[in-house]
Design goal:
The protein has two helices and eight strands. The protein is globular and about 45 Å long. The mean pLDDT is 95. The termini are close together. The protein has one domain: D-tyrosyl-tRNA(Tyr) deacylase (D-tyrosyl-trna(Tyr) Deacylase, Chain: A, 3-Layer(bba) Sandwich), CATH 3.50.80.10. It is 20% helix and 36% strand. Strands 1, 2, 3, 6, 7 and 8 form a six-stranded mixed β-sheet that branches. Strand 6, helix 2 and strand 7 form a beta-alpha-beta unit. With 147 residues, the protein is an alpha/beta fold.
Length: 147
């Protein structure tokens, strides 16, 4: 499972049926790969909640999403598994099939929320407009297979 995490001043997602926004926090673009399991989601949710990417009074990364009482916007992003090493069209065969990807995406959201973090989401497999007002900018790549 992969997550591209961006520290934001605000973020939002718009679809035909939903409009969700967060203030200070993290936007998590989450991709589920073939063979991923709940343990991958558990690992990434724990890492996301406790990742120290918010600055202390001295400007050093010392606070987590939990510490700053921030919010999370989690957006499904199968394209994180795109392989563009050959040809001109990315190959997405490493991405999990939609039913399994959605199950693990929803599980990740549930686990992150259970840690006391307010979580908003997009709509799985929908066309979305994602707004990210990056704070820093700070962007972190996490992969559950690189524990």
């Amino acid at each position: 499972m992969r997550a591209l995490i961006q520290r934001v001043k605000r973020g939002g997602v718009k679809t035909a049926g939903a409009d969700h926004a967060i203030g200070r926090g993290l936007v998590v673009l989450l991709g589920v790969g073939v063979g991923d399991a709940e343990s991958d989601a558990d690992f990434l949710a724990e890492k996301t909640a406790n990742l120290r990417v918010f600055s202390n009074a001295d400007g050093k990364f010392d606070h987590s999403l939990l510490d700053v009482k921030g919010e999370a916007l989690v957006v499904s992003q199968f394209t994180l598994y795109g392989d563009a090493s050959k040809g001109r069209r990315p190959d997405f065969t490493a991405a999990a099939k939609p039913q399994e990807a959605n199950r693990l995406y929803e599980y990740f959201v549930k686990v992150l929320g259970a840690k006391g973090i307010p979580v908003k989401t997009g709509i799985f497999a929908a066309d979305m407009e994602v707004e990210i007002i990056n704070d820093g900018p700070v962007t972190i790549w996490l992969d559950s297979r690189k524990k």
